[in-house]
Amino acid sequence: MSATRYRRFLKLCEEWPRDETKKGRDLGTFLRQKVAAAFREGENTQISDPDKCDQMYESLARINGNVYRQRFPRVRDTSFTGVTVEECKVLLSGNMQQMDEEKKGLWKTLMERFSSKSPEDVPEKAPEK
Fold first, then answer.
1. Of 52, 57, 47, nearest in space to 16 by CA
2. Which tens digit of pLDDT belongs to each residue from 46-86?
3. Which ranges of the sequence are coiled-coil (predicted)?
4. Domain hosting residue 85, numbered range
5. Single pTM value for the model
6. Does 65 fall in a domain?
7. Res. 15: pLDDT tops 80
8. Which of 25, 56, 67, 99 could disulfide-link to 62, CB 3.0 to 4.6 Å?
9. Which residues pair with 78 in a beta bridge?
10. How far apart are the C-alpha atoms of 8 and 60, rounded to whole Å?
11. In whole angstroms, what is the distance from residue 103 CA to residue 122 CA?
């Protein structure tokens, strides 16, 4: 019976899409790692709680099959903030550091404008005794 569960999880991992824009944060990659850890011995792995394992598989299969997306369709392709799907993809991609650099805080911007040194080059003062 464990062999059947293992094959079902492997098939689910093959079907689960990977998002190359989310290096290190991709749900498909995370799922593959968890399945590999749970089934270390492959088909010979003994499962301590088969009901919980089956329930987890069914839940993941429903998410992968878009069951809830079809059951509860969205009226619009935006969120309450008005951000579109494309903008969300950009925000969630690995370009967050680039956006952080573009949107520096007011303090850093002022320090860069009025200082000959960048804020990173200025050593912090030691507390006086």
1. 57
2. 888 889 999 999 999 999 999 999 999 888 777 777 778 78
3. none
4. 76-120
5. 0.60
6. yes
7. yes
8. 67
9. 84
10. 11
11. 21
Asked if residue 62 is part of any domain, the answer here is: yes
Tokens representing 17 are 């899409």
Q: Of the candidates 51, 15, 13, 45, which has an alpha carbon nearest to the alpha carbon of residue 30?
A: 13
Which residue do the tokens 């050593």 mark? 123
* Alpha helices (runs of H) in the chain, residue ranges in sequence order: 2-15, 27-38, 50-64, 67-71, 85-92, 96-102, 106-114
φ, ψ for residue 84, nearest 5 deg: -80, 170
Cβ burial of 6 (10 Å; 0-12, 13-18, 19+) is buried
Distance CA 60, CA 86 (A): 25
Q: Which two structure tokens, joined as six digits, stand for 25?
A: 């944060």
pLDDT tens sequence across 77-90 = 777 777 787 877 77
Instruction: Say what the pLDDT of residue 104 is.
Output: 63
Q: How many CB atoms lie within 10 A of CB 111?
A: 16
Q: Do residues 11 and 5 make contact, with C-beta atoms less than 8 angstroms apart?
A: no
Same-domain pairing of 11 and 35: yes
